[in-house]
């Protein structure tokens, strides 16, 4: 009896997600096998693997995959490392800790499009931006971030967005750390570093896994930041898979190729997820 | 130096370091806010101006050009609506998975998360066509449905990890008293996990509020939320950073202030089952 | 059904019911350019003239707008009753029967519309979108800086002369860059400028068999010249600059010369936004081996999707917004220097406009000299000066723009950039079945 109730309780979300996945996915699979361009109505013949071939042989394809992974790994490393460091820093009370915490998590509430607009215009613009002004004040040549370091610029924007999320999760986790254990260790003469390394880090293993998992889901599909700031360029320097699909397929409304690209992105996501779950899965206790 | 002195010094140093980093990370937001009170010429002046005579002109212009309240209302309805709907759907399944795990629970959870990996750009056209056929284009309901499904996996997962860490003894006691699974969920589990549910909901609201792909592609005039308002100020003909900042400030302010107020709640609830 | 859905459905139903009884409501999609925002502000005037029509606006930035209206029109969704489209879309969509022909009868005086603009918005002799404003490209330069550097700029200089002038005016120590040009990737951004420049070097996008010609010597010469000149005498970060950024630079007095849309003339001569308003001179675009296609032609226009249920009201709106009276209305309200230009001969004949707009002659000359049907030295199969009016061009132009901006930023050589752009264009054309 219990079993059937369990199933009943799970049914709504499972069925909804199944529909949400199966319907668009099967439409995508179907579209990926036909000639389907919004601007050429009526030319919907079956083309086999042509859309896939077209997408994979795109000169930007491998660059886009490597950019997607670079972006993912860099942001993961930056947010996890800085997140752990900063949340450990503000773990102990000091004057105005609450305000500091509010300031630190604020970027997470900013829309990705606004995030990119602020950074692109007001921070990184080589003539009027804050960074240019700092460089000039120091007597240095201003750096043209978006043209010379496009991927780095995108990584900065995305990390700025997601670092607060990591801090939130880690701060929460640190609150539950056993203070007695820490004090005992201190009595035994352990240094701050040792406590951090042998008590805090293991305690954070699971929250780290959680942050990595959630961020991965979002980072694989970064689009708005690139669209607003670098437009994937110069060249293919900051084009990721999502942007490549947009650029190569949606810009000319070729739904067939866009669908094929979408399926590749799913494939990549699942490969990443597979390794990820092997790497951090044991901490996820699912 | 005595040990107490050393400790004091350390606290002060930690305070200074934390404040510096926090202010640096907050600076872009602060700058956007400040810029929204500048004239366009002040906004792009070199060196950047920190002190100036503030003007409300940009906000007046934004209000004249776009119906801010309508966009904001759409944002509120879609993000809160989708969050509530998703919680209603997710709570029973998360509960079932946490307390009556089967052999395939883990697979189901991972599968749910994997549905989030279908990139939006790749399925734009199918979703657009479906929305058109069901009359959901440019409606709040359409966006609510999309946002609900979009966030459902994460919500289920967060609730699942939260439920899993509830003390088992309380549940067993309830079971001894002969509570049905339904009664157990509503009377025992839910009251115990208000914090977890609240922070899950908060996270979902933030994600919906800031969603810009579907809300731009599936709306026109009726259901367009604040993200669409931003799109009418980004890269116009001419450099209008002050107006852009004013529009951005208006679009982000509600959710940022909301986040500040709920920050304690978020910090307590985002445990992902890390508390044993 | 939970209560939320119920409420939502109830709301939707009651809203629909309300609309049925109200006056006709039309939804207009437009770009967030200055002239369109002015049109939005003047809506009450239209509603006064047609009390039974109410106008709702959807204002978006160019890229998002284009994506939204294309989705809408290709899928026949009917969310918009009037949409702002460019000279690129109008003939393509007109050919597919997606747009209502514009009602040009009676007092509209269609013959007043500049022939090149009208031609660019027509397919098979029928006009499918009404020009709201039109533009070509020309040289805007600082008279004071030119004098100081001892150079003269005149109509149709050679590119070499422009480069030498840029070198002479370049003074980065004092924050003045010799020349500002578009560098930001995009078919409507850097490629709009560069296509026109390449035309004057004798290049073309496609040969008569639709084979992309980006690896030709003409393209190589043009792009090498462009990259070399802009890296030496251009502002920092040129590969991120498009119209907006260059306009701000020019208005701040940081550019010696700027070659861009004629519509910029009314901004750079407006003392309210430009620090150099009284020092701007105008000249026709430079050329290299031919004057053909040396300056581009573009128009933002209002079209009516065939899927609309409210074609009558939409026609009324389009006719109002692109009429002579509308131009007079703006002139009376904001001054004649601020009217939407580049559409009607009568605007340029108006003495008030001639007096207010120092750029009038240069602009009219540039627009009239552009011919979208014959813009390349060697024969080409496409229509359009700085673009080819085929659906594939948007992606081809954008990819090429990406590559060229890569070359400008120094991450690719010009040859590599053009090679990979050509390969990508070739793939695109093959995929679309041109050969």
UniProtKB/TrEMBL annotation, chain A:
Keyword list, A-Z: Cell membrane, Membrane, Transmembrane, Transmembrane helix, Transport
Membrane-spanning intervals of the chain: 9-31, 61-90, 102-119, 151-174, 207-230, 250-277
PROSITE patterns listed in its UniProt record: ABC_TM1
Gene Ontology BP annotations: transmembrane transport
Membrane topology per record: Multi-pass membrane protein
Protein family: Belongs to the binding-protein-dependent transport system permease family.
The name this protein goes by in its record: Sugar ABC transporter permease
Automatic annotation (TrEMBL), chain B:
Residues of the ABC transmembrane type-1 domain: 72-262
Organism: Marinomonas piezotolerans
Keywords per UniProt: Cell membrane, Membrane, Transmembrane, Transmembrane helix, Transport
Gene Ontology CC terms, in alphabetical order: plasma membrane
A Pfam family annotated for this UniProt entry: BPD_transp_1
Coiled-coil portions: none
TM region(s), chain numbering: 12-34, 76-96, 108-129, 141-160, 188-207, 239-262
Family: Belongs to the binding-protein-dependent transport system permease family. MalFG subfamily.
PROSITE patterns linked to this entry: ABC_TM1 (PS50928)
Alphabetized SUPFAM superfamilies for the sequence: MetI-like
Protein known as: Carbohydrate ABC transporter permease
Localization in the cell: Cell membrane
Membrane topology: Multi-pass membrane protein
One Gene Ontology term from the biological process aspect of the record: transmembrane transport
TrEMBL record, chain C:
InterPro entries recorded: Bact_solute-bd_prot1, SBP
Keyword Chloroplast part of the UniProt annotation: no
Segment forming the signal sequence: 1-22
Domain of life of the native organism: Bacteria
GO CC aspect terms: periplasmic space
Localization per Swiss-Prot or TrEMBL: Periplasm
Keyword entries, A-Z: Signal
Record family assignment: Belongs to the bacterial solute-binding protein 1 family.
UniProt protein name: Sugar ABC transporter substrate-binding protein
Organism name: Marinomonas piezotolerans
Classification of source organism: Bacteria, Pseudomonadati, Pseudomonadota, Gammaproteobacteria, Oceanospirillales
